[in-house]
Write a structure and sequence with these properties.
two-stranded antiparallel sheet; about 60% helix; Arc Repressor Mutant, subunit A; single chain; mainly alpha
Length: about 190
């Protein structure tokens, strides 16, 4: 027979004779909470287990077990990830709304340049534009041999003659253009 506390019996009598037994609500242990927070922030299962206080030796096993076999831990990880995702979404939505307000205010003030800038910024924030930049410093693959030779001559002149001049071949022809100043510095 089940033993009941006096308070339980009192409630049973005053609530129509029924006693509701509620199972104790299970809670995460402090280690499990630390583990869930670490996993939700993007840490690997093994590293999260170590950060939560599980031994290095069994961290892989503990992390996999907690993430795959503990419903409370799984729910907590999901809850934390959803919260983070909601925060990020709200931030983007707020940002887009603020830019829209700025655009509208600029339009009302006939500041069309500012309005266009705000609208382009909204598009960039929403991912509608791809900002591609290509650096083409001394990209010889797009240059002809003659352009490369001319560029080397420019660099030679700019460097004050530090680069030596040597004969070179352009499409089968040997070209020799020693500059007198350079020839003197080479001969010395």
């Amino acid at each position: 027979m089940e033993t009941r506390s006096p308070l339980t019996l009192y409630r049973a009598v005053h609530d129509g004779g029924t006693v509701e037994h509620r199972p104790k609500e299970k809670k995460l242990t402090p280690k499990q909470e630390k583990f869930a927070q670490a996993v939700a922030s993007g840490t690997s299962l093994k590293e999260a287990a170590v950060l939560a206080g599980y031994s290095h030796k069994n961290a892989s096993r503990a992390g996999a077990f907690l993430a795959n076999n503990e419903p409370l831990v799984q729910r907590r990880i999901q809850e934390l990830q959803n919260r983070g995702a909601a925060r990020a979404t709200l931030t983007l939505v707020n940002h887009l709304e603020n830019l829209e307000k700025l655009r509208d205010q600029a339009m009302q003030n006939n500041a069309f340049g500012a309005a266009v800038t705000a609208e382009v910024s909204r598009g960039k924030a929403a991912g509608l534009y791809i900002d591609r930049k290509e650096l083409t410093v001394n990209k010889t693959s797009d240059m002809t041999k003659l352009q490369i030779i001319e560029r080397i001559k420019e660099l030679h002149e700019q460097s004050g003659g530090i680069l030596p001049t040597t004969p070179y071949t352009v499409e089968g022809e040997v070209v020799e253009e020693p500059v007198p100043e350079q020839q003197e510095s080479i001969n010395k």
